[in-house]
Design brief:
single chain, about 200 residues, alpha+beta, NADH Oxidase, five-stranded antiparallel beta sheet, about 50% helix, globular, Nitroreductase
Length: about 200
């Protein structure tokens, strides 16, 4: 059983050439994401992760309108901006985007209810978000999708929460761009296992 799991997480890689060619219906894909997020662990089971899935025109608008519009406000020169827009067009060519948020209202509630660990809950929230992201990404890979994870939320968060009427306590952490893979992942180097994992004692 563990070998199947390791195979799944090893196959999950960043793939950038993506298209809109159909794999699953929107409804089926939504169920896959729902299940992945539901079963992602979180400290004290606080379940602070929130997800919005953008399909079709909403996905296109995010990468072709919202992200370039926010980039324009902060990028210092036209050449850099043009390069940024070329990159966002690549994401727009994909089928959809999963937006990962953390709900600050939940985090604040945990800080108030478990005051002993109040200073830790923001960090634990980030851990929970990361686990929801990796669960969703791996689940999509197993369904045949290619995907890559992006981080434009520091720029686009306010615009997205306003557009979709989301609570202002939502903080956008990452965007998982997904679609039909039209290329493969780049070669990935690894550090020696012994450099990253050490053991002490024996059973």
């Amino acid at each position: 059983m563990s070998s199947a799991f390791i195979s799944a997480i090893a196959a999950r890689r960043s793939i950038y050439p993506l298209s809109k060619k159909a794999i699953l219906s929107d409804a089926k894909l939504t169920t896959v994401i729902q299940e992945a997020v539901k079963h992602a662990p979180s400290s004290f089971n606080m379940m602070s992760s929130r997800v919005v899935i953008l399909f079709g025109a909403e996905h296109d608008a995010y990468w072709n309108d919202i992200v370039p519009g926010e980039l324009k406000k902060v990028v210092p020169d036209e050449e850099t901006f043009a390069k940024g827009v070329e990159r966002t067009k690549m994401f727009g060519a994909a089928a959809g985007t999963v937006l990962f948020f953390e709900d600050g209202k939940v985090i604040k509630g945990m800080q108030e209810n478990v005051a002993l660990y109040a200073d830790r809950f923001p960090q634990w929230s980030e851990h929970g978000s990361g686990m929801a992201q990796i669960y969703a990404w791996t689940a999509l890979e197993l369904e045949g999708y290619g995907a890559n994870l992006q981080h434009y939320g520091n720029l686009t968060g306010p615009a997205v929460t306003k557009k979709y009427g989301l609570p202002d306590t939502y903080s956008l952490k990452a965007e998982l761009v997904f679609g039909h893979p039209e290329g493969s992942a780049k070669e990935k180097p690894f550090l020696p296992d012994a450099e990253r994992v050490k053991t002490f004692g024996s059973s």
